[in-house]
Design brief:
CATH architecture: Alpha-Beta Complex
Distance between the termini: 66 Å
Number of domains: 1
Largest sheet: 6 strands, antiparallel
Number of helices: 8
Helix content: 25-40%
Number of strands: 6
Radius of gyration: 20 Å
Strand order of the largest sheet: 1-6-2-3-4-5
Shape: globular
Structural class: alpha+beta
Length: about 220
């Protein structure tokens, strides 16, 4: 009996190893050289120390530019300015100041990406989270955005960050992100980054992508 159990276990162990290997296999391909350049741009942005909430900032640099400004308060964040700044550094235009005020800009960007102007600028919708991660790994600028249904409340936007995360993890928390917001994160995910916006994750967010044709800074 003992030898039979040993024999069965010997057959099952390779299958278990294969299952474990599949669970850890990257969901969305390798990170291409263009994807590595995108990572370099995001890593060099110093997002965890710039574009800070509660401050008025220069949208391009993220540096505080109005010390003592009382217009900005504990609910002021800069997700949309950060995304626009990363686009600028990659040679990609998205709706940004001065074409639109920084206030409620994320929701305006959500509309703009799918507008004739956004499409003419080279943006296209991405239906699946897995495709969004794959395109970012390939070096495209991909954003995930939530348009607030309340025009008096802000939406949210983040940049998809190239990642070798597994399919299981992608399904649990969405693609990897870099974002400014109430808390700024160099490496986060869609689920946690949008949890402050009821109705966003997982059905309310939308993905948009744009090819990058210039070398990242």
């Amino acid at each position: 009996m003992k030898s039979l159990v040993t024999f069965v276990l010997a057959l099952l162990l390779p299958l278990t190893a294969l299952a474990g290997s599949a669970d850890s296999t990257p969901c969305c391909g390798t990170i291409s050289p263009a994807g590595q350049k995108l990572l370099q741009t995001l890593n060099a942005s110093n997002v965890e120390n710039l574009w800070l909430a509660h401050l008025h900032v220069n949208w391009e640099t993220g540096e505080a530019d109005r010390p003592g400004d009382t217009e900005y308060h504990e609910k002021s964040t800069h997700c949309s300015s950060y995304a626009a700044a990363m686009g600028e550094r990659l040679g990609v235009y998205m709706l940004r100041p001065p074409a639109h005020s920084a206030k409620f800009l994320a929701s305006a960007q959500a509309q703009w990406f799918q507008s004739p102007d956004g499409v003419a600028q080279g943006w296209h919708a991405v239906a699946q989270a897995q495709d969004a991660q794959r395109l970012a790994n390939g070096g495209e600028l991909v954003v995930v955005v939530y348009q607030s249904p309340n025009p008096e409340k802000p939406g949210h936007i983040a940049v998809i960050r190239p990642s070798l995360k597994s399919l299981a993890l992608l399904q649990q928390e969405g693609p990897e992100t870099t974002q400014a917001g109430k808390h700024n994160h160099l490496d986060w995910n869609v689920r946690d980054g949008f949890k402050g916006h009821p109705g966003a994750w997982p059905e309310g967010v939308r993905y948009f992508a744009h090819a990058v044709s210039v070398a990242a800074n």
